[in-house]
Design goal:
The protein is an alpha+beta fold and about 375 residues long. It has three domains: about 110 residues, Acyl-CoA dehydrogenase/oxidase, N-terminal domain (Butyryl-Coa Dehydrogenase, subunit A, domain 1, Orthogonal Bundle), CATH 1.10.540; about 110 residues, Butyryl-CoA Dehydrogenase, subunit A, domain 2 (Beta Barrel); about 150 residues, Butyryl-CoA Dehydrogenase, subunit A, domain 3 (Up-down Bundle), CATH 1.20.140. The strands form three sheets. A four-stranded mixed β-sheet has the order 1-4-5-8. Strand 2 and strand 3 form a beta hairpin. Helix 4 packs antiparallel against helix 6. The model has no long low-confidence stretch (mean pLDDT about 95). Pathway: Lipid metabolism; mitochondrial fatty acid beta-oxidation. Its EC number is 1.3.8.1. Its cofactor is FAD. It holds the Pfam family Acyl-CoA_dh_1. It is an enzyme of class 1 (oxidoreductase).
């Protein structure tokens, strides 16, 4: 097995690392405290190719593969998880879905704008009454006399909802038949009938704007149906497989930042006349942190490789994506917890970034499929039983 990276993969990683360290890390704590969206940084990331890493050049992207995307995501997340959340949604959920299921016109119109940082994309599946049970949505789309779609309903927990221009939306087009009655649409938020609610006051990733959105007789052109009518739920689930690799990468970035901060602290901090890193209990924690971080990193890279292989040769990568997301998110939460513990009182203080890593890590166990959902997906795929 070859663990080396290509020149292109190392290049996008270096670009992401340089930008993360020079532009993102210095303002991360301030933006977190204010809950302020990093709009300028997001635009610059688009210009650097970080908002459309796997988007082909003909649609304005960097033309990279899934492994390159993971390497770049880790670097951004290590500097600021909130910024990496926006990056993940734009790459994995918005651009990926349209590239896979959209028409040529849709790709040119919507993917290019997002990949180049000219606009921000979002993904709207969750509703106030349907989280993990996504097929239980209430948002409706009905055809009018012109063949266009009139949409009514609410979606919740929409990342970038307050600032996005375009949204991939899922709505019921044929009631009463469950998931087979769901279709996907591309929404322009500047058209009448769209309303973004208040920004949610979140525990972590506070600089990423999240809100509820509402549609009141919003008219979506028939040309903006994504894929075939009635195939929306399968589109949503396929897109989430890719999205889980993005969140696994985010979790690895958070975990790495917490681990590296802890290594430095264990060397510098002294107690009873010795660096605390020389104490066996601290060493045991560091060893376990290292093992979990490496396992999460390798599983995430495996999932990215599997995605790239599936795209070239056919096949699926859902199990690998769920394994990576489950292991990486739980590793991030555990490592951040141990990092705070090793830092003691300073780990609990906002003077250091450990408490932010701790708050940010938690969401990786929840969105794009909770840890419980990942275990169900993995077990069903392994056993073949439902």
């Amino acid at each position: 097995m070859d663990f080396s990276f290509t020149e292109d993969q190392l290049s996008i990683q270096a670009i992401a690392r340089d930008f993360a360290q020079k532009r993102i890390a210095p303002v991360a704590a301030e933006l977190d405290a204010k809950g302020e969206f990093p709009l300028d940084n997001i635009r610059e990331m688009g210009q650097l190719g970080l908002m459309g890493i796997e988007v082909p050049h003909e649609y304005g992207g960097a033309g990279m593969d899934p492994v390159g995307y993971v390497l770049a995501m880790i670097e951004i997340a290590a500097a600021d998880a909130a910024t990496s959340t926006v990056m993940s949604v734009n790459n994995s959920l918005f651009c990926n879905g349209i590239l896979k299921h959209g028409t040529e016109e849709q790709k040119q119109k919507y993917v290019r704008a997002i990949a180049q940082g000219e606009a921000i994309g979002a993904y709207a599946l969750t509703e106030p009454q349907s989280g993990s049970d996504a097929s239980a949505m209430h948002t409706r789309a009905t055809k009018n006399a012109d063949g266009d779609w009139v949409i009514n309903g609410k979606k919740s927990w929409i990342t970038s909802g307050p600032v996005c221009r375009y949204i991939v939306l899922f709505a019921i087009t044929t009631p009463g038949i469950g998931a087979k009655g769901v279709s996907a649409f591309i929404i322009d938020t500047q058209k009448p009938g769209f309303h973004a609610g208040k920004t949610e006051p979140k525990l972590g990733i506070r600089a990423s704007a999240t809100c509820e959105i509402e549609f009141n007789d919003y008219v979506c052109s028939k040309d903006d149906l994504l894929g075939q009518e009635g195939k929306g739920f399968s589109i949503a689930m396929g897109v989430l497989d890719a999205g889980r690799i993005g969140i696994a990468s985010q979790a690895v970035g958070i975990a790495r930042a917490a681990y590296e901060a802890t290594l430095q602290w264990s060397r510098d901090r002294k107690a009873f006349g010795h660096p605390i890193g020389s104490f066996q209990m601290t060493q045991a924690k560091i060893a376990d942190m290292k093992c979990k971080l490496d396992a999460a990193t390798l599983l995430t890279l495996r999932a990215a490789w599997a995605k790239g292989h599936a795209e070239k040769n056919g096949g699926r990568f859902g199990t690998e994506a769920s394994v990576a997301k489950l292991v990486a998110s739980e590793a991030a939460m555990w490592i951040a917890h141990q990092a705070v513990q090793i830092h003691g009182g300073m780990g609990y203080s906002k003077e250091m970034p450990l408490e932010r890593y701790f708050r940010d890590a938690k969401i990786t166990e929840i969105y794009e499929g909770t840890s419980e959902i990942q275990r169900i997906v993995i077990a069903r795929n392994e056993t073949g039983l439902r």
